[in-house]
Amino acid sequence: MALVPVSRETAALFDRYVALLEKWQKIKNLVGPATLAEVWTRHIADSAQLDALAPKAETWVDLGSGAGFPGLVIAIMRREDPDFHMELVESNGRKCAFLREVSREFGLNVTVRDGRIEDVLAGWTAPVDVVSARALAPLSALLGLSSELLKTGAIGLFPKGQDVEHELTEASKYWRINALTVASKTDPKARIVRVEALAPNPSPPRS
To answer: Is 68 known to sit in a ligand binding site?
Structure first.
């Protein structure tokens, strides 16, 4: 956690979180087995760095939350903010069970929504400050999934790897994007795409 310093209390909760993840991983296979050995850098710190990119956000929607990266990590960091609420969207039932268990045990202000992203977000009307997704889909697809939130004022935070410029180029064929990239603290080749405004490209390529 030297990459993304947190308080001792938060670090202690992260210890408990990792212990629960390791316990459930033996039965539920929540994350890629090869990544568990690097859980602190690969998952915890990599997720925690997003917090500083939206410090005033009160309502955060995390798509494809999996084992809670980045959604649960952010919720743990914001646990003492009474105005903060995290929405975790995940279609895998066993992962939803894990998300609920951690949220309950830690007393987090979290709602776990068990379902496909398209179904959960259909007709969504509540204000959203941030929408995030990590290791879920190419950027163009992420923008499509979250477009209704992004077009109504939410910012998007999407960690990406070394192919980020290619993904931005592909996405620009379908979307007019106001975005910037932020260097990742955990991987020199990675970037975080911060989408600040989005609109459909009036002249998308023909299929």
So the answer is: no
Q: Is 153 annotated as a binding residue?
A: no
177 is in an annotated binding site: no
CA distances from 17 to 44, 99, 140 (A): 10, 10, 32
50-95 tens-digit pLDDT: 999 999 999 999 999 999 999 999 999 999 999 999 999 999 999 9
Tell me whether residue 80 is annotated as binding.
Answer: no
Q: Which residues, in sequence order, are bridge partners of residue 166?
A: none
pTM above the 0.85 mark?
yes
What is residue 207's predicted lDDT score, i.e. its pLDDT?
Answer: 61
Q: Give a yes or no: residue 168 inside a domain.
A: no
Q: Is residue 192 part of a domain?
A: no
64 is in an annotated binding site: yes
The boundaries of the domain holding residue 18 are: 8-159
Evaluate whether residue 186 is within a structural domain: no
Sorted by sequence, the CB contacts under 8 Å of residue 103 that are 6+ apart come out as 72, 75, 110, 112
Q: What's the CATH number where 143 sits?
A: 3.40.50.150
